[in-house]
Amino acid sequence: MGRGALFLVAILLGILALTVVLAVIMWTSTEGPVTISVRGFIALGLGALGTAVVGGGLMALVFISNRSGHDQAVHDEARSRMPEDGGPF
Fold first, then answer.
1. pTM of the prediction?
2. Which among 50, 54, 60, 87 is least surrounded, fewest beta carbons within 10 Å?
3. How far apart are CA 21 and CA 57, in angstroms?
């Protein structure tokens, strides 16, 4: 892994840590006790898992579409319809 990639990973981990710290501060600064039942934690976990599955599935479809050549066909068609000067009209 190059220096640029390591720098990017360090920046992203810093953003993640900052987000977690801010979430804990916000959670603990509310007035009164904040309680979530076991069912609430299950719903929260299932919602996060479902979001990750949908996001992963959409990313998989993007990669499959790119590798199968569908994106290139659309790009070529759009290129052929553009004027010679490259402008939008």
1. 0.53
2. 87
3. 30
